[in-house]
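Question:
Now give any protein.
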Amino acid sequence: RPREVSWSGPAVVLDPDLIASDRTRVARRVGMAFVAIGAIVAAIGALMVRSDLSMLRNWPQVEGRVLESRVVPAAVSSSNRGGPARASYDTSVTFRYVVNDVTLESTTAYGGGASRANAEARVRTYAPGTVHPIWYRPEDPRLIRFDLGSRFAVFFLSGGLLTMSVVFIGLGSLAWRSS
């Protein structure tokens, strides 16, 4: 049963043109917000691409011998919907390598996925005693990467951000212009 509401204030007139202009204003603001968010995400993605390109150009490659590799727990992810938390796994690899006639050891992690089987497969790939190409930061040779040989792995995150920014800017432009 509908409830009746008594109103003793001034009369409210619903002007259809006024309602339409409010919708237009809201659509324009939503569009502008999407364009702004897209521009910020594009800037972050561009900075990441610049950093990735710098690594590819400037980080020297050396051969590193694996001393230890193991599966390590990464972050625990949860959907916050009352479901169980899912474990995530990284592969931690310790390399020994030589830079400027100095022998160094450094540990780095790779992976970060929900599949323990994939992490264990990486452990087998990077078994102790095997030799793999690694790249080190010239200013700090203890900082290493061993995935720079795969352009997909290098540009995955920055490329994803740039793609997301194009989507945001495109949707925002559509909402902005249709208003």
